[in-house]
Amino acid sequence: xxxxxxxxxxxxFAPPPDEIGTEFDVxxxxxxxxxxxxxxxxxxxxxxxxxxxxxxxxxxxLNTEKxxxxxxxxxxxxxxLAEKMAEHARQFGADIRMEDVVSVVRRDDGIFExxxxxxxxxxxPAVILTAGGTPTRLGVSxxxxxxxxxxxxxxxxxxxxxxxxxxxxxxxxxxxVEEADYLTRYAExxxxxxxxxxxxxxxxxxxxAFFNPKIEVLWNHRVLEMVGDVKGLTRLNxxxxxxxxxxxxxxxxxxxxxxxxxxxxxxxxxxxxDPAGYLITNDRMETSIPGLFAAGDLxxxxxxxxxxxxxxxxxxxxxxxKFLTARKSGATSG
Length: 334
Ligand code: NAP
Prior knowledge:
By secondary structure, the chain is an alpha/beta fold. The protein has 2 domains: 3-135 and 260-333, FAD/NAD(P)-binding domain (3-Layer(bba) Sandwich), CATH 3.50.50.60; 151-256, 3-Layer(bba) Sandwich (FAD/NAD(P)-binding domain). Helices cover 21% and strands 26% of the residues. The strands form 6 sheets. The chain has a 5-stranded parallel sheet with strand order 5-2-1-9-20, covered by helices on one side. NADP nicotinamide-adenine-dinucleotide phosphate binds at residues 69, 138, 170-176, 178, 195-196, 200, 222, 257-260, 303-305.
């Protein structure tokens, strides 16, 4: 293996990254798989890049227990893959900083100003948005009240609190069905509550759940209300989506996996997006704002996997290189 260091750090007498300043060739927002892959490629491309991340690097990997669909790894824990990706990006000079971005504004001269909660202002002619998304709330009564007291959006974080208990998972996508299977290692019984009569989850994930004796699927049901007492959640109020029949389900935990809201609100100018808020890009991952690229879960696409996130990020980083070269030669606006 050979290492290329970032031009900012290849000088052994260079100041540490924190003292280098806040002007870059490209700012990458979010250090999930897409952000870390973009950083690796930008480092290899000798771009001055910074990754701004509000938490520790990893994004959704940190909420995923076991990963079995990332080539090269038959099975790897999400946090372990996150660590490997961060280490790999750093080997190529990635400057990953813990900063919570609050706004991204493109000035008339084409330079982006990226402001963070610490009051810092980072600037660059290109930005790659890899900020992923946040779990969608069901929006039913009791959900907010019992959040953290029975209601959860992260099986890996909270599963162990439900040893021997009866719990529910709401949703029918990959996340819901996969996490229901995971939760049976703690819970005695896991109900999957799904509003239709078939899952959206991939076949292999479904099969595993169907063969798990601790899982029971309540097809055609939706949650009307989450009810509890001072200790926390005690039951769900359900409605049959076909007959309208109401019922009660006694559970002490409810894990909600009903989708994902793309984190795109940071950008203050209008960007073209679909009705659900996912960003529309061209085949270079460029959004409708020149110099603003998007990669990973916040982009419109058929599926959102780790593999698609890193694929997007590779394209985005290489497109940024070409964009900056064209900009230098005066071939782009701004
Ligand atoms: P998703 O695929 O969008 O599935 C969301 C599920 O929640 C759907 O079954 C949907 O029902 C249901 N739902 C949505 N709103 C609801 C509501 N208000 N009430 C009740 N149910 C509701 O989301 P996801 O599972 O979070 O996955 C997001 C992306 O990540 C997908 O592309 C997925 O393939 C990917 N992912 C992949 C893996 C993996 O491959 N290992 C793991 C996790 C996620 P309907 O089906 O009726 O619409």
